[in-house]
Design a protein that fits this description.
By secondary structure, this protein is α+β, with helices and mostly antiparallel strands. The protein has eleven helices and eleven strands. The strands form three sheets. It has a five-stranded antiparallel β-sheet with strand order 6-5-4-3-7. A four-stranded antiparallel β-sheet has the order 9-10-8-11. Helix 1 crosses helix 3, helix 2 packs across helix 3 and helix 4 packs parallel to helix 7. The termini are far apart.
Amino acid sequence: MKSDRLLSILLLLQTRGRVPAHELADRLEVSVRTIYRDVEALSASGVPVYAERGRHGGIELLAGFRTDVTGLTADESRALFILAAQGAHAALGLDAALGSALRKVMAALPAPYRPAAEVTSRRILVDATRWKGGPQPAVDLDTLQDAVFTDRRLRLRYRHSGAQEARTYTVDPYGLVSKAGIWYLVADRRAKPQLFRADRVRSATVLDDVVKRRPGVELADVWEVLRRQVEERPGGLDVTVRVRRDRLDMFLRLHAAQLAELPEDDGEGEWVTARLSYGVLGQTRQLLQFADRVEVLSPPEVRAELAAAAASVTDVYRRVGESGQ
């Protein structure tokens, strides 16, 4: 719509200052001629906008002109207030800033939109943490943020999963990503992408060296590559189990991360079949917590692993009992 385009032009000029007409045309997917017609329309409506032609020309608002119009639709205003959910901004130390920003947005919203925005902030809550995730280790993101925002290299002391000792790396950070309540540093190490869990960083030092990122590569690009590597990692162990119906809800909650697909449940029978995927055989021992309410159908090596684990526990209890006599 033309009215939306005019408002977009106004907000872009207010934010960025002078903008070439061809850039506005590309951004709004119209012709340069249409942009100039829109500028004439804004000027006719009283907006002090003017165009300068030439190599360094562009379209610009009169110095000092500001508008309080937010340009937000009802849906856009509701979407903003969902950002008030607890989580990422708190870890980044931006809780107070977000609250202040939303109050300013609320004050600038057209009066008819304010009730809907207020209701949204009270009726929608986003909790990014997983069920039964257990206490999360404290994460100090300040140094990582400092490197990310000042475009400096980082020296990390980092302990990999399963490793006893931390190792030292010099990396070129692209940014920070929060996934399911866990923070990750996305960086290049020797010009190759690598993922570092923030809670495994033992120490971090911002170096004086300017970051060396690959040309034209952004955080979203690197994250997509790393995300696919994790999700498509070969060597997974596929396990088929059947679960007693009276424990199915709890089973699905506790094993959501391992579910290969949602079980097909026809609502009948005592048992429901589920398919899981594990990284290594030892991880399947968590199925023991359901005792006789979960039965492993395949593969045989998982049944053997659980039988061995159960026998080991039984033997420990037997020896404890004998020593107490």
